[in-house]
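Name: Replication protein A subunit RPA32
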Amino acid sequence: MTNSQYGSGSGSPGGGGTKRSNAAQSLRPVTIKQLLDATQAHSDAEWRVDGHEIGAVTVVAHVMSIQAQTTNCVYWLDDGTGRIEARNWSSSDEEGVDKWGGVTEGIYIRVTGTLKIFGQKRYINATTLRPVTDPNEIEFHFLEAMMVTKILEKGRPPLPGEKPRTSANGHADNSAYSKQHSSAPSNPQWAQLPELQRRIVDYMAAQPPIPEGIHARNIASAIPGGNATAIAFACSGALDDLMDSGFIYSTIDDSHYALSI
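Structure predicted for Replication protein A subunit RPA32:
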């Protein structure tokens, strides 16, 4: 699959592209129910599944029906968790359904694309569709979708040879997906920073370089805690303090930040 620039999560499929975060440029396996439950803060905001921003998504589903239209082909999909349309927009000189290599009604297919909404109706703007030839791929997809959801929710499992995180009572944390937090900062210059500020810069340093910086919302969502509103408020003050101290700076606007060192 080739990399491409995806437009906003709403409006017509031909909408202009905008700068997206690193998370929005990734590919996430999901179920149709997750797409139906996805949320947007407003009509131009990014889509979120379980609170995490998504970009391209992939589903494996049964093709209930196919309807060829003048400008697009509509595939009605069902994966057992819900139903959704997948639309492939094509020019009039393309071969329509035939160009997807045997996608027909009644089979399972893998669809990759982005979640869109038009006229209050959600659909997948499909970039690729292909038949599933191995029955194990269906089960594998659901297991992969569950695994990714759990890792995003609770953190990655320990790597081979990595010690499990200990709880406050000194016992090993029994959660295989408990988040791993290092007590030592990744940069000695941050050793004297308050804990919240140190976690912020450690998180920023671990992210791939992004020219537009990291959005404050993504930084806040990466900080563990109970009350999301309280965490976001605390992070806002910590970001201001880090800017005043010269550890970070704002980039394309007042909500995007990058490390100074």
